[in-house]
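Narrative summary of target 7.
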Amino acid sequence: QVQLVESGGGLVQAGGSLRLSCQTSGRTFSNSAVAWFRQAPGKERDFVAGIRWSGGNTYYADSMKGRFTISRDNAKNTVYLQMNSLNAEDTAVYYCAAVWGRTYSTSYYYTTKGGYEYWGQGTQVTVSS
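Modeled conformation, tokenized:
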């Protein structure tokens, strides 16, 4: 059974940085696409960033470009989300999501919830202003 485990969340002051990690148990990230989504209280779960394990193609929500960076470490079988210049609007639960064995013809499915099959439990990020 595949499980995704997020870590690295916490409380940070506005302008600060955090790095989130996503690891999987049950299989490696080979032949997968992995993404980060976030959900603030009372809001929808929104796409943040995604990466295709093979080739390393990356995708970002427009509002994250330049501040957030998604990356992968093959040796550690881990996906990271480096978040810089955080502000109060970044406060949310951040979820890791993954799908294996699919190649989507457009970037759309790499940037929407429906494109992913497995989800972690989430890690809380709180930015104090």
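The radius of gyration is 14 Å.
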